[in-house]
Amino acid sequence: MDFRNTNWLTRDDLSQILGIARSTLDNAAARGYGPPFYRVGRLIRYDATEVQAWIDAGYTVPKRTATSGFFETN
Questions:
Q1: Is the CB of residue 13 less than 8 Å from the CB of residue 51?
Q2: d(C-alpha 58, C-alpha 23), whole Å
Q3: What is the pLDDT of residues 15-50, one digit of tens each?
Q4: What's the burial of 58, exposed, middle or buried (CB within 10 Å: 0-12/13-18/19+)?
Q5: Where are the domains of the chain?
Q6: What separation, in Å, do the N-terminal and C-terminal C-alpha atoms of the chain show?
């Protein structure tokens, strides 16, 4: 991967694109769900191309259910 030519997204950018709260994205990443990301020190960045591939593959961010309190995919 050539990091110089990559369009990087922040968690705030991605939460706006996906239409979800940043905290939902944070929780999904902590549980191993969501699009792949790169950690550089304390920074989290998403490769826009990989995010698009993740979306095209039909993946979704799990949502907390009111009754179970656990994450499940919809």
A1: no
A2: 21
A3: 999 898 999 888 888 888 889 999 989 999 999 999
A4: exposed
A5: 3-72
A6: 32
